[in-house]
Each structure stands twice: as structure tokens, then as C-alpha cells.
Amino acid sequence: MTERLFSREEANLLLPLLRPLLERAREVSAVLGDRGRQRRLRSVTVGNGGGEAAREMMADGDELSRVVAEIGGLGVVVRDPSTGLVDFPAERDGEPVYLCWRLGEDEVAHWHDRDSGFSGRKPL
Fold first, then answer.
1. pTM listed for this prediction
2. Residue 42 neighbours by CB under 8 Å, 6+ apart
């Protein structure tokens, strides 16, 4: 399958669709990362395999996977669902790069090399 390449304009047009998906991913990530919930699950799994608590955690994991897959189906790469960080495959001066955006930012305004990640992002 060919990778979809985005222009800045195309990436910005997707933001109204991405925002609610990434907000949901962030909510589910927070629930999955809840240390208190994890301790409770560990305490009940010793005796009965987890029961309802395990089913809830598995459902949350499935929900996160569904949302990430939906975003991926748009050609967007989810980097960190807990912060809403995504990359849009793109080209800059004929070289493969990513346009970088995070939930809370007004528009796609940064890019980085394919191998540098968020720490290497630069303004467009």
C-alpha cells in the first residue's frame, strides 16, 4: 500500500475530524494509565482472574486500538495518544518528512525529519 503524503493544507483540513478522535484516545489512555486502577486490577486478578475489572480494561484497550486504527486509516501516524501527538507523512524539498501536530495546537505548523521525531521539530 502506498503511503499517503499530505500537504500542510490537507493536514489542516483533517484537524476537525482528528480532534475528537484524539480527545477520545487521550481519555482512554488516561484511564488505562491510571495507577490506582492498575493496582485494583492486580489485587483482584490474584483470586479470580480479574473479572469485571479485567473486562473493562480490555474494552478500554480495544477502544484505544480502534481509535488509533481509525486515525491510521486516514494516513496519519499516531505517535502519542496520551498527548494527541500525530505525524502526517509529507515531502519537503523532495525529501520524506513528517508534518507534526499535537492536540491543542491551532494548526499544523511544524515538521521534522523522518528519523528525528518530536524533539527535532521545526516551524514550517
1. 0.83
2. none
